[in-house]
Amino acid sequence: MLPTFTWWNFSKWKTRRLFVSELLLVIGICILQNQEVKALPPVIRIGAIFTQDQKDSSMDFAFKYAVYRLNKDRTVLPNTTIVYDIQYVPPDDSFRTSKRVCRQLQNGVQALFGPSDALLGPHVQSICEALDVPHMESRLDLESNHKEFSVNLYPSQKLLNAAFKDVIKFLNWTKVAIVYEEDNDAAASNE
């Protein structure tokens, strides 16, 4: 049985951020062991950064639906409600995006999702790494640097190439053309 903690006992802001990442680990362990989690706050705020052209997009709806499903299934987090704060930012404006992320963090957001934009993503990731905030994103990232607080859900080019290869073999194709909008080392699929 886990001890009961009061969320407000932690005085420093950065300590709270580190605590949230540790909580995510504890949540995962407790869910796997089917034990009740009593150490969580009643409300967890998560933020999302989407570009303005992603408003009402499939990614926007998927994020909202994921939060809805988590809140509806009381076996996962029985005494905790997840609320989201979505900010829509102009594409190619890293300054405004950084300000919005900082405002979200000041308002108590404990984890961030997004953006999928190649220009804005590294800025948000940098802020999250500096402040020890858990960060999830889904964007093509050609850097293979390990980030301590960031998880990229987008498959690597190596995995995409392997998937294409498997499909080609399964369908017994002898010739194939894959057209990319941008050159992102996709030519390495000669295997």
From TrEMBL:
One GO location term (cellular component): membrane
Coiled coil ranges: none
Primary location recorded for the protein, binned into one broad class: membrane
Stretches assigned to the Receptor ligand binding region domain: 62-185
InterPro entries assigned to the protein according to its UniProt record, in alphabetical order: ANF_lig-bd_rcpt, Peripla_BP_I
Superkingdom to which the source organism belongs: Eukaryota
Keyword Transcription regulation listed: no
One family name in Pfam for this protein: ANF_receptor
Keyword match Hydrolase: no
Keywords per UniProt: Membrane, Receptor, Transmembrane, Transmembrane helix
Signal peptide bounds: none
Cellular compartments annotated: Membrane
Protein name according to UniProt: Glutamate receptor ionotropic, kainate 1
